[in-house]
Design brief:
By secondary structure, this protein is α/β, with parallel strands linked by helices. 32% of the residues lie in helices and 16% in strands. It is built from 5 helices and 9 strands. Strands 2-9-8-7-6-4-5 form a 7-stranded parallel beta sheet, with helices on both faces. A two-stranded antiparallel sheet has the order 1-3.
């Protein structure tokens, strides 16, 4: 090869290598880069809680007392879900609509089979989100196994609850839901019809508002909604 052609080829190769490196550094995966810790934008209503609740306490906020709270920009949330029953579908839709309204950065992890429940939780945690939102009764027992060993990761369970949550797990529940694991099952008042669009929307908003205000490790009860 002539010297000038050899030099041109080397230059093109270097340019291509630079382009590949640039592409690798900017993969489009914004979650691979650190971001500021999320904060609450706005304040809770006075009737959300009267005082700081004790660990594992159940609180019954006044409906709408959470409406003034929103997540800061670029809030990273993983929706962890399993099941195609009507209540789970209603919860999933509510979380998706909330994320769209709040411009939250939402990703979804679906655990299709019981053997995938714990691996699914692991995949969700590997994304290092600000919050993991769980929807689907099948995940309750696996979450009880995993969450106590990962106290730095915040979890929000909607439409069910853990029997003995650690401080990083918050739940939003009501009489028509209240599944607490296979050993306890669903309560005698379990009612799939109680998973209305309005209640599911309230569940994600009230739960996120509590987490953003460090009111975690509790159960938020929405019977009045």
């Amino acid at each position: 090869m002539r010297p000038h052609l050899r030099a041109l080829a080397a230059g093109l190769a270097a340019t291509a290598a630079t382009a590949v490196l640039a592409t690798g550094c900017d993969s489009g995966d914004s979650w691979s880069r650190p971001h500021p810790a999320p904060t609450a934008v706005g304040t809770l209503g006075r009737d959300f809680v009267a005082a700081a609740p004790a660990p594992e306490a159940t609180v019954t906020p006044r409906p709408g007392s959470w409406n003034g709270v929103h997540p800061s920009k670029h809030y990273r949330v993983v929706l962890l879900t399993t099941g195609d029953d009507r209540p789970t579908k209603a919860l999933v839709k509510a979380v998706q609509e909330w994320a769209g309204d709040e411009d939250a950065d939402l990703r979804t992890v679906v655990a299709d089979h019981p053997s995938d429940y714990i691996p699914g939780i692991t995949r969700a945690m590997d994304l290092a989100p600000d919050l993991i939102v769980s929807a689907g009764n099948g995940l309750i027992d696996p979450l009880a196994t995993v969450t106590a060993n990962h106290l730095s990761q915040k979890f929000l369970v909607v439409g069910a609850e853990l029997a003995e949550p650690t401080g990083n797990v918050t739940a939003v529940d009501w009489s028509g839901a209240s599944f607490r694991g296979e050993g306890l099952g669903a309560s005698s008042t379990y009612d799939p019809a109680s998973f209305t669009a309005a209640r599911c929307a309230a569940a994600i908003r009230a739960g996120v508002a509590a987490v953003l205000n460090d009111l975690t490790g509790i159960v938020i009860w929405l019977d009045e909604h």
